[in-house]
């Protein structure tokens, strides 16, 4: 893992969490239980403190940073989608930050809120709990339904299981040169939001 001490601060990472070897964690960072940090994610606590509470996931190519002197917190179950940037913002419990969205300094994302893909949340924006947020600049368009938060929570549970799966089964290998006859079948264990609506 690319874990770096900076100015006397060594990252603290719970052993149940998984930081991909191609991710980077620097300085004053505290990562709780069952967190997943994907490849090419950068969590840079060189200028301030970054706290990831239990069950947070920060997916591939995400950046978490801030201006000097700040302390930011991603609360329990926060879910940060591929390519998102969190710069000096706080994320509420069980919220979802969509792919390639940008959350700017001193923004507060309420618990169980969903920020749509490619949204831009301006500095100092306060998003109430259970809000669905989209656009550039981002705006609240409606409340998050029970159905939507159930779907989000189910997806986050998969990411909370992923650290254990990675610790047990992820290993660097040489590729196969042909498809073996006994290749395993991929598990089908997740319902899309559309499938959930049909029930």
From TrEMBL:
<dbReference type="InterPro" id="IPR001451">
    <property type="entry name" value="Hexapep"/>
</dbReference>
<protein>
    <submittedName>
        <fullName>Phenylacetic acid degradation protein</fullName>
    </submittedName>
</protein>
<dbReference type="Pfam" id="PF00132">
    <property type="entry name" value="Hexapep"/>
</dbReference>
<dbReference type="InterPro" id="IPR050484">
    <property type="entry name" value="Transf_Hexapept/Carb_Anhydrase"/>
</dbReference>
<dbReference type="InterPro" id="IPR011004">
    <property type="entry name" value="Trimer_LpxA-like_sf"/>
</dbReference>
